[in-house]
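Propose amino acids for all 388 sites.
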C-alpha cells in the first residue's frame, strides 16, 4: 500500500516491489501513482498487479479522494484475494488500511521511515496539522501487528513518544538496488552529463531537497571550500519545488552560480550514471533527534563506489564510521562540512581505498535483496506467532 500525492514514485517503493518480485513473491500494489508513470518508469509493471486509485489534483482533496475510494475498493479486494499480509508505508490513509485489515483479520505491517511530526515541525507546518498527524500516527502504530522502523533511533522514538511495545517494533534499515546503482566509467558519465572540465573536482548531491535533507547547507559551505580549493564544482540532482527554486536563489545571492550545476529530476535509469560523475558525494542531513535517519542516498552513493561526506546524524554517521566510508561533520555546521570535503578531496589514497570497498559493503549488508528477505522473515514470524 502506498499513497503519494506527487506524480512520481519514490525509488524506495519501486525497488522494494521489484525485489519482492525477484524473490518470487506475488505482489499487488495499491497506489495513487499515475498509470502513465508506472508504465514508463517501472520495469516490473507487468510482473505485478497494480490497483491504481485515482486522486484529484487539488490540495487536501487528493488525500480525501484516495481514502474514500480505498475504503470501497480494499474490502472487495480482500474478500476476493485474501492476501497473506498487507504492508504499508506510513501515511494518513493508513488509518483506512489498518481498520480494514483488522476487520478481515489480515496481518498488517506498517513501515516507519521517520517520525512525521518532527518533519512537519522542521517544515514549520501549522500546529493543527501536527496534532492531526500525531493522532493518526499513534492510532496506526498501536493497531498494527508489526511496525518496521528503519533505525534503532526510530524504534526508540516510537517506544518513548507513542508508548509502543518494543516487541512490536523491528528494525530493518534501508538499502539500495545494486543492479541499478553500480560504478560506471567516470569519463563516460561526465560526457553524458556534459561535464567537460577535466581540471576540477565534482562534489555531488542526488536526492530530495526538503529542509531536513540539508541541501541548503551546500551553498553555505561552498565559499569555505572555494577559498581553499577554487577548482571544486557542485552538482545538484533533485527537482522538488519550491525547494529547488529557493536553492537556486540562495546560490545566486551568494554569487556562486558559476560553481554550481543544477540538473533537476534525474531519471532512475541514469541515477547511477549521475553519481558516477562525482569525486565525492554528500549526505548533509540536518535532523539530529531521537527519530534517527536512514537516507537511501548514502547506500546508493556507496554502491557506486563513491567516498561520502555525511552528517553524523542517525545511521549516516554510524555507517560511515563503522565502514570507514568517508568523513562526517556535525549537522548544520557549514564550515565543518567544508573542512570534511577539503580533507577528503586532498586525500586521493583514502578515496581510492573507499572506492574499492564501498560497493562490497553495500552488497553484503545494505542491498534491497538482503533487506526485503529480512522483512519477509519478520512478517512471517509475526503471522506464525499470532496464529498460535
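Proposal:
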Amino acid at each position: 500500500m502506498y499513497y503519494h500525492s506527487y506524480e512520481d514514485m519514490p525509488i524506495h517503493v519501486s525497488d522494494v516491489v521489484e525485489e519482492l518480485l525477484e524473490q518470487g513473491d506475488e505482489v499487488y500494489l495499491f497506489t495513487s501513482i499515475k498509470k502513465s508513470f508506472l508504465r514508463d518508469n517501472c520495469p516490473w509493471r507487468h510482473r505485478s498487479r497494480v490497483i491504481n486509485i485515482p486522486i484529484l489534483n487539488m490540495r487536501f482533496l487528493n488525500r480525501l479522494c484516495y481514502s474514500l475510494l480505498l475504503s470501497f475498493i480494499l474490502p472487495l479486494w480482500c474478500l476476493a484475494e485474501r492476501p497473506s499480509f498487507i504492508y504499508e508505508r506510513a501515511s494518513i490513509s493508513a488509518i483506512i488500511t489498518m481498520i480494514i485489515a483488522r476487520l478481515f483479520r489480515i496481518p498488517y505491517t506498517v513501515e516507519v521511515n521517520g517520525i512525521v511530526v518532527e518533519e512537519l515541525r522542521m517544515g514549520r507546518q501549522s500546529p493543527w496539522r501536527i496534532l492531526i498527524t500525531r493522532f493518526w500516527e499513534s492510532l496506526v502504530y498501536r493497531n498494527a501487528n508489526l511496525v518496521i522502523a528503519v533505525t534503532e533511533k526510530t524504534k526508540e522514538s516510537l517506544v518513548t513518544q507513542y508508548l509502543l511495545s518494543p516487541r512490536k517494533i523491528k528494525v530493518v534499515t534501508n538499502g539500495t538496488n545494486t543492479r541499478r546503482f553500480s560504478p560506471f566509467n567516470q569519463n563516460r558519465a561526465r560526457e553524458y552529463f556534459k561535464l567537460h572540465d577535466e581540471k576540477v573536482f565534482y562534489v555531488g548531491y542526488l536526492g530530495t531537497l526538503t529542509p531536513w535533507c540539508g541541501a541548503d547547507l551546500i551553498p553555505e559551505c561552498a565559499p569555505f571550500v572555494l577559498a581553499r580549493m577554487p577548482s571544486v564544482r557542485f552538482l545538484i540532482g533533485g527537482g522538488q519545488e519550491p525547494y529547488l527554486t529557493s536553492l537556486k536563489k540562495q546560490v545566486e545571492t551568494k554569487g556562486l552560480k558559476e560553481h554550481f550545476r543544477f540538473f533537476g529530476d534525474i531519471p532512475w535509469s541514469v541515477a547511477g550514471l549521475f553519481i558516477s560523475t562525482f569525486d565525492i558525494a554528500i549526505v548533509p542531513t540536518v535532523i539530529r533527534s531521537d527519530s534517527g535517519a536512514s537516507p537511501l542516498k548514502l547506500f546508493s552513493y556507496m554502491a557506486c563506489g563513491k567516498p561520502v561526506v555525511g552528517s553524523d546524524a542517525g545511521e549516516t554517521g554510524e555507517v560511515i564510521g563503522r565502514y570507514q566510508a568517508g568523513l562526517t561533520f556535525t549537522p548544520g555546521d557549514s564550515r565543518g562540512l567544508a573542512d570534511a570535503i577539503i580533507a577528503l578531496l586532498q586525500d586521493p589514497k583514502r578515496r581510492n581505498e573507499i572506492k574499492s570497498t564501498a560497493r562490497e559493503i553495500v552488497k553484503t549488508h545494505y542491498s534491497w535483496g538482503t533487506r526485503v528477505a529480512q522483512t519477509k522473515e519478520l512478517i512471517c514470524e509475526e503471522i506464525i506467532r499470532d496464529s498460535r
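The chain has two domains: 11-175+368-387, 186-365. The domain at 186-365 is CATH 3.40.50.2000 (Rossmann fold).
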